[in-house]
Amino acid sequence: MTKKQKKVLIRIIISTVLLAVLMILEKTGILEKLPFSRWTSLGLFLIPYLVIGYDILKKAGKGIIKGRMLDECFLMAVATIGAFALSEYEEGAAVMLFYQIGELFQSVAVGKSRKNISDLMDIRPDYANKEVDGSIEKVDPDEVSIGDIIVVQPGEKVPLDGKVLSGNSSLDTKALTGESVPRSIKEGEEIISGCINLTGVLRIEVTKEFGESTVSKILELVENASSRKSKSENFISKFARVYTPVVCFGALALAILPPVIRLLMHAAEGPMWSTWVLRGLTFLVISCPCALVISIPLSFFAGIGAASHAGILVKGSNYLERLANTQIAVFDKTGTITKGEFEVSGVHHNEREDEEILRLAAYAECASSHPIAVSLRKHYGKEIDRSLVEDYEEISGEGITAKIEGKTVAVGNEKLMRRIGAEAIPCNHVGTIVHIAIEGSYAGHILIADGIKEGSKEAIEHLKKIGVRDLVMLTGDAKSVGEAVAKEVGMTDVHTELMPGDKVSEVEKLMTGKTVKETLLFVGDGINDAPVLTRADVGVAMGALGSDAAIEAADVVLMDDDLRKLVTGIQISKKTLRIVYENIALALLIKLACLGLGALGFANMWWAIFADVGVMILAVCNSIRALRVPKIK
Amino acid sequence: MKKTYKIEVDCANCANLMEEAAKKVEGVASCTVNFMALKMIVEFAEGADEKAVMKNVVKACKKVEDDCEIYV
Hints:
Chain A is α+β, with helices and mostly antiparallel strands. Among the domains of chain A are: 128-159 and 161-207, Calcium-transporting ATPase, cytoplasmic transduction domain A (Distorted Sandwich), CATH 2.70.150; 300-338 and 453-575, Rossmann fold; 340-447, 3-Layer(aba) Sandwich (Calcium-transporting ATPase, cytoplasmic domain N), CATH 3.40.1110.10. Chain A is built from 22 helices and 22 strands. In chain A, helix 4 (72-85) packs antiparallel against helix 9 and helix 16 packs parallel to helix 21 (564-600). The longest helix of chain B is centred in the last third of the chain and has 15 residues, at 50-64. The chains are: A alpha+beta, B alpha+beta. Chains A and B meet through helix 5, helix 7 and helix 10 of A and loops of B.
C-alpha cells in the first residue's frame, strides 16, 4: 500500500469505529436522551462523515467551480448532504464511508495488478558492466554506445543487444518468450537484451543502443498497449457520458415530480417531500457508473499482462478484443507453418552409400551460397577440403559440375541431368530434389525439404476447435509443395505460387467475404509480409525476437517460433472479453434492479451502497481473473 | 520528439482530464496518458523547449486535477 492509501485506510478505521459507536448509542436510545437531541446527533454524526468525506466534498466543490458537475464526487456529495438534510444521518455517513472503502479497494487492486504486470515484464536491466581499458565499470545501460564491450556475469540480465565475442552459456528467455527451456549461446552468435545469463561469463560487443535494444522496444510496446482503447472501453466511456446525466435528471425528477403531483391532486398524506427526495438520493447513489468505468480497462490491462507473460505481445486493447472473434486465419507458409530452413530429409535411388552421395554433393556445392547448397554443407557437417575440387562450373538455373578427386560430378536439377545425358528418376516426395550424376551416370537424388514446425499441426487443430472457420495458407512456393504442407497440417484452403503483392490481394479478397464483426488474422514471420500484416484486421508476427521490422509492422507479436502461442493468445482474448461482458451484465443488471426498487421505495440507502460499492468490488475481483493464462486443452 | 514521463494519479477519469489539459499546452504536439502504466507520453512540437513546455504541462494538469504528480 502506498502512503496515500494507508492514510485513507486510517481514516476509514476511525470513521467506522465512530460510526459504529454512534449507531449503538442510537439503537439503545441514549442519543435521544441527550439535550437538543436532534442537533447533538447531527453534530456527532458529522464527525465520522467529515473524517471520511472531507476530500470528496472539497473535490465536489472544486468541480462545481470549474463547471464540471456530475462527476462521482459530486454525486456522492449531493447524495450524502441530502441524506443529512433529511435527518438520515446514519445513512449519509455510511454512504460516504462505503464509497471510500470501495475507492481504496479499487486503488489497491489496480496497484496490485499494475505490479503483477510489471513483475511479469521484469526485463528492464538496471546496469551494464562496461569494459574500459581492461577493467569493468558498472554504468547505466543508456551510457553504453555501439561498439562498446560489456561483460555479463551468470545471473545477470543482458542489458543491450549485441554479439558474443567470447564465452559459452545458456540463456533464460522466459521473460521474453514464456519458454522455460534455456537457450544455449556461444561465441559469434547474436544475443538479445532482456534474457538472463545462466551459466557462463559472456563478453559482448554492443550492436544497438539501449533505446533501440529489444528490451526497450518490448517495454515501450507493452506499456503503451492500453493507450489504444478497445471498442468496449470506448462504448463504456460513451455510455457513462450519457448515462450519468440521464440518471441525475431521473433522480431529480423522482425527487420533485411525485410530490408535486401529489400536491396538485391533494393526496391524503400530503406531498411526502422527504420520502421522495430520499428515493431520489438513493437513485443517485445506485447510479454511479464506477464499476464499469474501472473494471473494463482493468480487465484488458490484466489480459495484456497475461499475454505478455506467455510471450505474446499485444499492441493494444483493441487488438486483444478483435482476437477473440477470429473467424479467418491466414498463414504465411515459410517460417510460420514450416521452419523456414531447408534440411536434407532423405537420399533416394542411390547405389552408393548415403554418406558418399552427401559428401560429393557438399563438395560440389562448396563455393555456392544458394540456400540449398548451404543446407547440403550443413548436413554434411565436416570440413571441406577445397583442394580436392577442380574444374568448378556453375550453370545458372541448373546446377554445378565439378571434378572431385578426379571424378566428374554433376549436382543439380533435371535440366542438368538431361544436359549431361543422365536419366533422372523423379521423386514422389515433396520438396526440392537435387539429382547427382557421377561420371555421366545417374547416382540418385537428395531430397531437401522445409520441415513443418513442431506444433503447427496441433495449433491448427486447436484453432479449429476454438471456432476459427477458415484456415488459409498463402505461399509463393510451387503448387505441389504448398498443397502438401497445407494438407499435412489441416488447412481448409491454400493459395500457391503467389508473388508478394498477390498475398495482399488474396487477403483483401478474403476481407470482403466476411462481416465487419468477424476478425481476419494474418500470421507471418514479419519478413517481406509487412503490407499484409498491416492490411489484416490483426497482423501477427511470430518468432520476432530481435526482428525490429516485425515488431514494428505487427499488432500482435509471438515472441518465439511456436504457433501454439497463437491459440493461447486467442484464448486469453476470449477469457478477457468474457470477463468484460460478465462485468457489464452484472453491473447493469444489479444497478437497474436496484434503480427500479429504489424508485418504488423498496430499496433503501443500504441497498444503494451495495449496488454501487459492492458491484464495483465484485467487478474488480472478476477483472483480476484475466491475469491468469488459460491452458490449452 | 517523444518523451515518456512517470506520473501519479488516482483515477482513470483524472488521467483523461490530464491528457486533455496537456494536449492544449503550447509546444505539445500530442499527448497520451496511460493510467494503467502510469505514464505520460508527450510528443513535442518542432523546436519546442522541452523543459519550459513540461513546466506548463505540469501547471495545466495541476489545474484540472490538483491531486496529480508528473515526474519531469
